[in-house]
Amino acid sequence: TMLKEELCDPEGACTQASLALRELQPFCIHEGVVMTGRNMQKARGGEPVETFLEAKELQVKAFFRRGSAKFKAGEYSIAMRNFEQCLSAKKEIHPDAKPDK
User: Fold this and answer.
1) CA-CA distance, 90 to 87, in Å (whole number)?
2) CA 13/CA 86 separation, integer angstroms
3) Which pLDDT score, from 0 to 100, does residue 99 have?
4) CA-CA distance, 47 to 63, in Å (whole number)?
5) Are 67 and 59 in contact (CB under 8 A)?
6) Contact (CB, 8 A) for 24 and 59
7) Bridge-partner residues for 43, per DSSP?
8) Partners of 42 in the beta sheet?
9) What is the pLDDT of residue 39?
10) What gap in Å lies between CA 42 and CA 86, rounded to an integer?
11) Cβ(84)–Cβ(63) under 8 Å?
């Protein structure tokens, strides 16, 4: 199964992944910058590059987890969109990476 045993409930897994994505968003928009403010309109610079890279890696995992949960729930088009977002986020941090065969 694509979901960890403790998250075999697709709805719970999707909720957790969505919460993670929301919390990671301010760190994933621009390298070296954290977006702040009610609508993330303010940029706080000087953030270490590692912060962006770590947040993007966690974002990749969250998109994959949400896609897996949607797939298990039979929501295939939404799952596909999440898997595409997962790949897109991965390419932002590893532009030359090739998919595993």
Assistant:
1) 5
2) 16
3) 65
4) 24
5) no
6) yes
7) 35
8) 36
9) 83
10) 26
11) no
Q: Which pLDDT score, from 0 to 100, does residue 17 have?
A: 95
Q: Are 69 and 11 in contact (CB under 8 A)?
A: yes
pLDDT score for 100: 67
What single-letter DSSP state applies at residue 99? -
Q: Which residues contact 55 (CB under 8 A, 6 or more apart)?
A: 24, 27, 28
Q: What is the DSSP letter of 29?
A: S
CA nearest 56: which of 80, 36, 99, 85? 85
Per-residue pLDDT of the chain (101 residues; tens, 9 = 90+): 455 555 578 899 999 999 999 999 999 999 999 999 888 889 999 999 999 999 999 999 999 999 999 999 999 999 999 999 999 999 999 888 776 66
Task: With both helix axes pointing from N to C terminus, report the angle between 10-28 and 49-72 in degrees, rounded to the nearest 10.
Answer: 160
